[in-house]
Amino acid sequence: MPLCGNNIKAVCVSNGIRVKAEEQKEFAMAEDKKPNCGDLIEIPRGLYQHWAIYVGDGYVVHLASASEHANAGASSVKSVVHNKATVKREKLEDVVGNDTYYINNHLDEKYEPHPIQDILQDAKILVDKELQYGVTTKNCEHFVTLLRYGQPHSQQVEDAAVYGSLIAGIVVLGYVIFKLATSKDKEKEKNEHGNGK
Questions:
Q1: Which entry of 4, 50, 106, 142 is annotated as an active-site residue?
Q2: Could you state, in order of their start, the residue ranges of all structural domains in the chain?
Q3: pLDDT digits over 31-69, tens only?
Q4: Rounded to the nearest 5°, which phi and psi values hold at 48?
Q5: Which one of 8, 53, 90, 130 is CB 3.0 to 4.6 Å from 144, fit for a cystine?
Q6: Catalytic pick from 4, 37, 106, 140?
C-alpha cells in the first residue's frame, strides 16, 4: 500500500475547520508540498495547467498527451490530431520538472471524493492505457477529477470559455462603437458638404 503523508489540511478537517480550495494551495506550499494519496496535483505550465493525481511513494498518475513529454516534437502534433493520450504512472518530480505544483482538491466542497482505495485502484487499472483525449472535453484535468470525484470537470476550460466570451463581447462592443462613430462622422461630413453648395 502506498505511503501517504499527513498534512495541515487533515488536522483542520479533523478539528471541524473547513478549508477552502485557495487555502489548500497555500497549505501545500507551506508544507513543503507533501501530498496525500488521492490529492489532485496542479502544475502550471504557462498558458495552461497540467493535472495529476498523487498515488503515494512520490508517484502520480496522469493523462499524458505527447505534448506533455519533453522533446515530443512531431509526436506531439500526432497525439492531438489523433485525439489520444496515455495514462502514465511517473515520479511527481519528473512530471513537474522545473515547474512548481500545488495540491488543489478544488471540488471537495462540490463533490464527495471517492474513497482513497477506490481512487488508487482505478488509477492503477488505467496505467499504460491509451484513452481518448480532447483539450476541451477529455483533458488531464477531466481525467483526475473523474478519478477523485466520479465527475469529469475542467475549471481551466470553463475559465477559457468565460474569458473567450468576454473578449468576443469586447470586440463586438468595440466594433459597434467604431461603426457608430464613423457613421456619425460620415453624416456630419455629408451635412457639411450638402450645406456648402
A1: 50
A2: 8-153, 155-197
A3: 456 899 999 999 998 888 899 999 999 999 999 986 655
A4: -150, 175
A5: 53
A6: 140
Question: Is 12 annotated as catalytic?
Answer: no
pLDDT of residue 172: 67
pLDDT digit string, tens, across residues 85-108 = 999 999 999 999 999 999 999 899
List all residues 6 or more positions away from 133 whose beta carbon is below 8 Å from its beta carbon: 63, 65, 79, 80, 83, 84, 85, 139
Catalytic residue check, 82: no
Q: Is 62 a catalytic residue?
A: yes
Check residue 146 and give its pLDDT. 95
Q: Which of 62, 69, 142, 193 is catalytic?
A: 62
Answer whether 132's CB lies under 8 Å from 99's CB: no
The matching CATH number, chosen from 3.90.1150.10, 2.170.270.10, 1.20.1440.20, 3.90.1720.10, for 8-153 is 3.90.1720.10
State how far the Cα of 146 lies from the Cα of 153, in Å rounded to an integer: 7
pTM for the whole thing?
Answer: 0.63
Predicted confidence (pLDDT) per residue in 154-165, tens digit = 876 555 444 445
Cβ(53)–Cβ(61) under 8 Å? Answer: yes
Q: What DSSP line would sit under 163-185, residue for residue? A: HHHHHHHHHHHHHHHHHHHHHHH
